[in-house]
Amino acid sequence: MPAPSVLSDIVFALPDVHPAWLPDAAFRPVGSRRLALGTPADGGAPAASEVLATLRAELDRATATHGGAVVGPQDAADLLLHLSPAVPTGFRLERSGGRVTVSAADPTALLHSWFHVVRRGEAAFASRPGDPDVDEHHAPASALRMLDHWDNVDVHPVMGQVERGYAGGSIFYDAGQVRPDLSRVTAYARLLAAVGVDRIAVNNVNVAAREARLLTDDLDEVARLAAALRPYGVRAHLSVSFAAPMTLGGLATSDSCDEDVRAWWRAAADRVWAEIPDFGGFVVKADSEGQPGPFAYGRDHADGANMLAEAVAPHGGLIHWRAFVYNHTQDWRDRSTDRARAAHDHFAPLDGRFADNVIVQVKHGPLDFQVREPVSPVLAAMPRTRVALELQVTQEYTGQQRHAVYLGPAWSEILRWRPWGDGGATVADVAAPAGGFAAVSNVGDDRFWTGHPLAQANLYAFGRLAWDPTLDPAAVLDEWITLTFPDAPGPLREAVHAILDESWHTYELHTAPLGVGFMVRPGHHYGPDVDGYEYTPWGTYHFADRDGIGVDRTRATGTGFTGQYPAPWRDVYEDRETCPDELLLFFHHVPYTHVLHSGTTVVQHVYDTHFEGVERVRAMVERWEAVAALVPDDVAQRVRERLAEQLRSAVEWRDQVNTYFLRKSGIGDLRGRTIH
Ligand code: BDP
């Protein structure tokens, strides 16, 4: 492991990079006080002492900027942070007589507590007379809170450098190698530590030849990335190719039952941990969209995953094995193949066979990160497997960071959903204790990190909800506004809420209706193309004809997908009378005249929501213009440009979808609005 680096000042304020939720002003309430770190910064394991050194640097920076002081632990500090083995996970926060004492067993948890206090600001200290004393324990719901970067080392000819990236190039790689200067990576780790994310997979799940070499020849490059993340307690993971024993090792096979293959993986893992002792593990996309996997050898995914698990187990490593496995070369004429069924068909029968250090990583919906899908039934089907919930912070299908779409409410709905009905466990209850949470990052080398400045709120919300899935997403948004715009006057706060609180629903209103999904332009997935995927091999269809639209996934007459859910949902979804409106076309093929629970017909619903969606975007533009002068010019201007594009795009969606439904159904708008 490289020697602990002294955190350079530059990490706290990168020139030309927006500070996101850690502007200096957010530190004012703590930085103006007397702070103490009750632990020597040089004890313990190297990684641990490095995190403590970071914490010390944080205290120095905050007090130097805001006039407070770092004092000795014996002095009367307003905030004392110290290590204590008595707190098993997370941290304990006690406040007595206006003084705050935080204790944690682990330096990273202590660092997280620091950002907790920063987030609470004045409220962390009993500054008003009569404020009660507190004694609180804060621990994350899950020990696994991870971001996946779909970054390529080389620029991919079609996908660019960051696959599905909408914020510029990679912060890790440039010109075919890891960047010489990684201060931005450390600044990123700092942002993540402030929301509790502590693992990153540093390369794309689609592992091309150049990226594959990170595992072997270019391991020193990964070690440099890990070193840049380490000061903030963030651990590196790597996406690997199942075919690596052949492509990198020159073996004739990558069959998981072959002894030479197993030995190759063990040796590869040994080398990784020798170089990076706190390395996290491997992420694998196998037998999916062209990636190699165990099917080539007649093996199943438990065979494949367990082989890797065996190789990393001596090092305490993890295998994140993705359940995103389906046939992407299907015959669209064959109605018996249902992509929604695929993950459950492949994985549910394997429950109980995965090694303890395998995590099966499941996309939140059965298809692919659509604006509206039911929750994946796989999450409820593997009680003897560690399953992780996978979310997509990058907005591939939700406006690509040109649209302001706050995804906190969507994720909250997923996390709170109860697969076994009222009184049963939630998705968060299933994932948190075992496999945890993973999400595809939306960050790039853009000056605002996320392209759209307001898309920072999504990255923030993922971290906060992974830490505590019961948080109210509107409250999380409020935290983000307070930190990002510390001097935000009321009108700015209200406007950002007005723009973002309902923005997920707004996007849903003017895009593919009633859970039917897709209708996006093939390839890049931005903007409308109603039939774009209809006659393709990808398995994403809506089956519109002159009589109706939607996918029959019932047991009675359709693909039987509803049967993958436990009761009560298998029956709720099966019956179009009980199926929720917003998922009707995901589960049923219905006539355009079918009457929804809302009382309107499907076709009229399409017209109404698409007209309303555009009006809502127009209102967002107006709300922003009324407060733009209250934020720095660069933020104001970037948001203005993106909102203009959002409005243009929403109009395009409205017109194409409405016209399509008018032409297919021959039924006009009851309200007589113009449809072309
Ligand atoms: C799809 C993306 C594709 C990813 C794939 C995945 O279009 O770029 O590789 O997901 O999750 O949504 O592996």
UniProtKB/TrEMBL annotation:
<dbReference type="Pfam" id="PF07488">
    <property type="entry name" value="Glyco_hydro_67M"/>
</dbReference>
<dbReference type="InterPro" id="IPR017853">
    <property type="entry name" value="GH"/>
</dbReference>
<dbReference type="InterPro" id="IPR011099">
    <property type="entry name" value="Glyco_hydro_67_C"/>
</dbReference>
<feature type="domain" description="Glycosyl hydrolase family 67 catalytic">
    <location>
        <begin position="134"/>
        <end position="449"/>
    </location>
</feature>
<dbReference type="InterPro" id="IPR011100">
    <property type="entry name" value="Glyco_hydro_67_cat"/>
</dbReference>
<dbReference type="Pfam" id="PF07477">
    <property type="entry name" value="Glyco_hydro_67C"/>
</dbReference>
<protein>
    <submittedName>
        <fullName>Alpha-glucuronidase</fullName>
    </submittedName>
</protein>
<feature type="domain" description="Glycosyl hydrolase family 67 C-terminal">
    <location>
        <begin position="450"/>
        <end position="673"/>
    </location>
</feature>
<dbReference type="InterPro" id="IPR037054">
    <property type="entry name" value="A-glucoronidase_C_sf"/>
</dbReference>
